[in-house]
Specification:
Oligomer: single chain
Largest sheet: 2 strands, antiparallel
Structural class: mainly alpha
Strand order of the largest sheet: 1-2
CATH topology of the largest domain: Rhomboid-like fold
Order of helices and strands: HHHHHHHHEEHHHH
Number of helices: 12
Helix content: 55-70%
Strand content: under 5%
Number of strands: 2
CATH superfamily of the largest domain: Rhomboid-like
Length: 273
C-alpha cells in the first residue's frame, strides 16, 4: 500500500497544479462508476456518489459536513465532468500565466466553498436538487482569469484569435441558463463561485498596485533579470514580476519575447511561486 501511495505522489509531483486537480476529479468519477458496477454485480445497496454530493436537506448536511468540499470534485455524468474539465484546463493554463501556482488552489477551493454557501442559502427556502460538480470552482477560476487579463487572446479552432473575456462570458451564460428551475440551488452555487473569483481578482489587482506604489516611493529601479543581483530582495523581484505580468495582461502571454518568458520563469522560480 505504501508503494502505491509513493508511486502516486511521484506521478503527481511532475504535473502542474491544474492537471493535478483534473486528475483528482477524474479519479473520483471513476471511483463512483466502478463502485456502482461492483455494487450492481454483488446485488448490494451502496451509493458512493450519495456520500460525496452536497445534500439540500440541512439535517443530512450536518451529518455529512465533508460534502461541502467533496461535492466540488464529484461528477456522476460523463459529459458533466468532460465539460467542466475542458474549461478548467483551458482557463487554468492561462490562470497560471497570470497568477502564482498556489493561487490556483486557493481560487478553486474558495470558489467551491462560496458556491456551497450560496447553495445553502437558496436550499433553505426553495426545494432544489443536491449539489454536485466542479462548476462553481471552475467559474471562480474563469472569473479570476478574465478579470486579470480580459484581452488575453487564445486561438480557437475555426474562429482564430479570440479574447478570453468573450470565451468566459460564453461559459457563464451556458452555466447559468442551461438548466431548469429545479436546479435553483445550482444556479446560486454558480453565482457564488463567479463572485468569489471576481473578488479574488480585484483583491489581487489592489495588492499588486499597492506593491508597485510602495516600490516607487522607495525608489526601486526595475532592471533586466541578468542585472539583478543573486541576493536581490523579494520586493525587487516581485516588482519586476508585476511589470512582466502587466504586459501579459495588456497583450497576452504571446506578446512576451523569448527572453522575457525566460525571465518570467526564472523570477517565478527565485521567489518560489
Amino acid at each position: 500500500m505504501a508503494d502505491i501511495i509513493n508511486n502516486i505522489r511521484r506521478f503527481l509531483r511532475g504535473k502542474s497544479v491544474v492537471v493535478r486537480f483534473i486528475l483528482i476529479n477524474v479519479a473520483v468519477f471513476f471511483a463512483i462508476q466502478l463502485t456502482a458496477i461492483a455494487v450492481y454485480l454483488a446485488d448490494a445497496r451502496f451509493d458512493l456518489a450519495a456520500l460525496l454530493v452536497m445534500p439540500s436537506d440541512v439535517s443530512r448536511l450536518i451529518q455529512r459536513p465533508w460534502t461541502v468540499v467533496s461535492y466540488m470534485f464529484t461528477h456522476v455524468d460523463f459529459f458533466h465532468i468532460l465539460g467542466n474539465m475542458l474549461w478548467l484546463y483551458c482557463f487554468g493554463v492561462i490562470f497560471l500565466d497570470l497568477y502564482e501556482n498556489r493561487a490556483f488552489t486557493r481560487v478553486y477551493i474558495i470558489g467551491g466553498l462560496a458556491g456551497a454557501a450560496a447553495y445553502c442559502a437558496v436550499a433553505l427556502f426553495t426545494p432544489t436538487a443536491s449539489l454536485v460538480g466542479a462548476s462553481a470552482a471552475v467559474l471562480a477560476v474563469i472569473a479570476a482569469t478574465v478579470l486579470r487579463s480580459p484581452n488575453y487572446r487564445i486561438h480557437l479552432f475555426l474562429l482564430g484569435p479570440v479574447k478570453i473575456k468573450w470565451v468566459g462570458l460564453a461559459f457563464v451564460v451556458f452555466a447559468l441558463f442551461s438548466s431548469d428551475i429545479t436546479t435553483a440551488g445550482s444556479h446560486a452555487a454558480h453565482l457564488g463561485g463567479l463572485t468569489a473569483g471576481c473578488l479574488y481578482a480585484l483583491n489581487s489587482r489592489y495588492r499588486s498596485r499597492s506593491r508597485n506604489s510602495r516600490g516607487k516611493r522607495k525608489g526601486i529601479v526595475l532592471q533586466p533579470l541578468h542585472a539583478v543581483p543573486v541576493n536581490a530582495s523579494r520586493q525587487e523581484l516581485e516588482a519586476r514580476l508585476d511589470q512582466l505580468l502587466d504586459k501579459v495582461r495588456a497583450s497576452g502571454y504571446n506578446a512576451l519575447s523569448a527572453k522575457e518568458r525566460n525571465e518570467l520563469n526564472e523570477i517565478s522560480r527565485r521567489i518560489k511561486i
